[in-house]
Amino acid sequence: MPADIPAPPAVAAPHPRFAVGVLAFCGVVVAVMQTIVVPLLPHIPELTGATPAAASWLVTVTLLTGAVFTPVLGRVGDMYGKRRVLVASLMVLVLGSVLCAVSSHIGVLITGRALQGAALAVAPLGISILRDELPPERVLSAVALMSSTLGIGAAVGLPVAALVVENFDWHTMFWVSGAIGVIDILLVLRYVPESPLRTRGRFDAVGGLGLSAALVCLLLAVTQGADWGWTSARTVGLLTAAVVVALAWGWYELRVPTPMVDLRVSARPAVLFTNVAALLIGFAFYANSLVTAQMVQEPKETGYGLGASLVVSGLCLLPGGVMMVALSPVSARISGKYGPKVSLALAGGVIAAGYVVRYFTSHSLWLIIAGATVVASGTALAYSALPALVMRGVPVSETGAANGLNTLMRSIGQACCSATVAAVLSGLTFRVGGRAAPTLHAYQLVFLIAAGAALAALLVTLCLPGGRAPATGTVEESGDTPAARTEGRRSAPVHEVHEVHEAEEIQENA
Question: Quick check: pTM over 0.90?
Answer without folding.
Answer: no
